[in-house]
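Please check this protein record:
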Amino acid sequence: MLLESLQYRTPKQPYEHDGMRFFEETMKHKIPASSKQLLESAHLQRFADEQARLEAGGTAALEAERASLTARRGAFRDQLVGQLASQRADKGRQLERDASVHASLMRRKEEVEKEEQRVELALAEAARRRKAGHVQRTAHDVALSIDTFEVNMKRLLKGEEAAGGHRAGPPAQVALPSASAMGTCQGTPSEAKDGA
C-alpha cells in the first residue's frame, strides 16, 4: 500500500492531468461544441467580412477625401494666386495710365501758365504804351500851349510898343486857347497826374 501511495503521488501525474485539462479547454475554445455554434459563426462570417470591407473602404474613402480636400485647397490657392496676379497687373496698367494722364495734365498746365504770362505781358506792354503815348501827347499839348502863349505875349507887347508905349485903355484881348480846348489838349488834372 505504501508502494501504491508512492506511485500515485509522483509529480508526473499532476503534470499530465494539468496538461490534459489545458488541452481540453483550448480545444473547447477553438472548436465549437455544437453544430449550432458552427452555423452561427458561418452566418456571422458574412457580417465580419462586410465589416472588414467597410473598414478597408472607409480607410480608402478617408484617403480619397483627404486627397480631394488637398486638391481643392491647391486649386483654390492657384485661383487666389491667379486673381492676385491679375489684380497686380491691372493695378500696374492703371498706374501707367494715371502717370500718362498726370504728365499730359502737367504739360497742359504749363502751357496754360505760359499763355497766361504771355497775355499778362502783352496787356502790361499795351498799358505801358498807352501811358507813354498819353504822356507824350500831354507833353506835346503843354509845349504847344506854351508856344501859343509866348506868341500871343509877343504880339501883345508889339501892339503896345506900336501904340506909343502909353496904355490908353485895357489891354487887348489875347487869343488864348479855350478851356475846352485846353482840356482836350492837356486832359483832366487827374490824367495829367497819372501821366506824370
